[in-house]
Design goal:
It is built from twelve helices and twelve strands. The protein is α/β, with parallel strands linked by helices. Strand 4, helix 5 (130-138) and strand 5 form a beta-alpha-beta unit. The relative contact order is 0.16.
Length: 313
Amino acid sequence: MIEKRKIILDCDPGHDDAIAIMLLGAFPEKVQFAGITTVAGNQTVDKTFFNARRVTEYLGLDIPVYRGCEGPLLRSPVLADDIHGETGLDGFTFHDLKRSPETEQGVLWMLRTLREAAEPMTILATGPMTNLAMALRLEPEIAGKIREIVFMGGAMGLGNVTPAAEFNMFADPEAASIVLSSGCPLVMAGLDVTMQALCSEQMISRMAGRNNPAARLFKDTMTSYCAVECKTYNVTAAPLHDPVAAAWLLRPKLIELKPMHVTVDCTGREGYGRTYCDYYGKGGGRANCRVALQLEADAFWDLIEEAICRYGA
Ligand code: RIB
Ligand code: CA
């Protein structure tokens, strides 16, 4: 019996967020979207909201999309437009939207949906955690309706936006701190594991060869994203961050997890947004998070290709 997860995706599309949507949308027998909430991160919330609508409609996914918080809880706004561009999804041309936008505020929709859910739901967070933190502060008891929070963010080692911090954490450290201390079961896909999912030009050609709408989305978005990533970080292949977190929902055996106590630096100094992962358990804190260590990379790319093929010719 395949267990079907009902999920809320909280995201900031964003090229890799878009591929995560494509990945999960290909397996409706495993993942049922209650909806998508969007947050400021890779671009402004207006642009991430627009992009999530464009991607779901382009792929023919009937998923309601909601606009979340305007910006981080406390810190000054920071965007990743240096990577994702002016639109937040540079490189792909979409047709005009036909579906009218949802008007309910994303955090309020998230709370209503969780409150009304018959069973606790899974939340996949692939952007800054502003919406989630706001929901937990507005209704702390809502944590009881969250089965687990699977998030792309943080790192045991180096950051990618400062030497210390990964972008999703850096963009709203206080929000991340609220989520990390919420008591909700947590699965963290940090840079240590997402940097194992490296998308090369050869990988783009492999996926493009499937020659259908999802293949075109992958090809065009990844060509643009990889060119910028490779130039920015002086590498020859770009990490496909968010789909790694999404893949855990579909094939958990692809990723090795280790329980750890994880906190985030909110001091506002050079370590701002850094996640401290107590790998050896010597810090005395209770393990609040299962941290992803190892990815079966070949199987991950096979899963991406399988997802693309499921979108037909
Ligand atoms: O650091 C990588 C994360 O920041 C990804 O979620 C990417 O989409 C950006 O939001
Ligand atoms: Ca993201």
